[in-house]
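Example 3.2
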Amino acid sequence: MKILVLNAGSSSQKSALYDLSEEASDRPLQPLWEAKIDWTHREGVAEIEVKTNSSKIHEERSASDRIDTLSHLLETLTSGDTQVIQNLSDIEAIGHRVVHGGQDYRESVLITPEVRSAIDRLSTFAPSHNPANLEGIEAMEQLLGTVPQVAVFDTAFHAQLPLSSAVYPIPYSWFEKGIRRYGFHGISHQYCANRAAQLLNQDLRELRLITCHLGNGCSLAAIQKGRSIDTTMGFTPLDGLMMGSRSGSVDPGILIHLMREKQYSPDDLDHLLNEDSGLKGVSGISSDMRQVLAAIAAEHSSKESDATHSQAKLAFEIYIHRLRSGIGSMMASLQGVDTLVFTGGVGENSADVRSQTCEAFRFLGLELDTQKNANHPVDQDIATPASTVRVLVIHTEEDWAIAQETQRIVCKR
């Protein structure tokens, strides 16, 4: 079965084509074709990258019509150096990452008019994500007609959180209206949990795992018997850890103060907390951890220090402090931990983040192998043999997980 995966964001679109007719493997299959559209670098311009095993192209197009851009992207599947199929009719199913499924969608589902309406309604809870997910669904319907489409929800993995974790300490009537902890990055957390069990050659149901998805968005999950029992993101993806440009958890009294004294509107606060906070807000440099660490390194090599470098150092220290605190909280929920997993762009690529985070848990007997940690590990255990806690770096494969879920849903209908 050839499955097209769309992972849509507000400013970018990742796509991949998988052929799941091959024999099942413990390791993820490589896509036949991968593509990315980025609308952020130049106003009115869509940057397109497409690659296959043998070819790679990069081009720019007018971004005035996203459906037209997606249509052009699909043309690269059937023509030119990146052709991997004869006709678009060879695509048998489409899988979409949908960020928020609310209380109604606790697993992946075939997309129907009712499901589309729900995704639209839930855009209130995930305004930066659900509208883009819906736009991708509607575009594929226009371009590929009646090909079955599947929504794979980021919230689904956390749908069975215990009420003690899911319910906020606010009037219970709010919970009855749907205000609760939903959790996000569920596709990644679930994939990494399963992959960790494979790498350790252990039964997932016997492992106490803490998965750290650290990218521009960051979240933790405490996983017991293969199920999420606690997580850091909440009603929206804004809660929890410090992130690239998102604040994570803050005292709600700050927001009340700003609305009263500074006359900030809800839209003002939404922008500040989602776009101008986190690493970007504190460092004054960037939401990209690489640039923050580069600024810190520049300070160390310079004879003079300035405020920008000091802020970069502070941003990194806050990030690590909050990450350590979150991991400690997840340990308490699990009543211990067997394995700590790092994934996402920062989790997979920043040896400094991993080492600084793990340093706080040496008292538990956790010991990193410094050489392994520094050598760009992928799907590896970077703890020493004597460590009481295994530490894994796993390359998250959200698109592959979406493809598998899509096949499962389409085949059982």
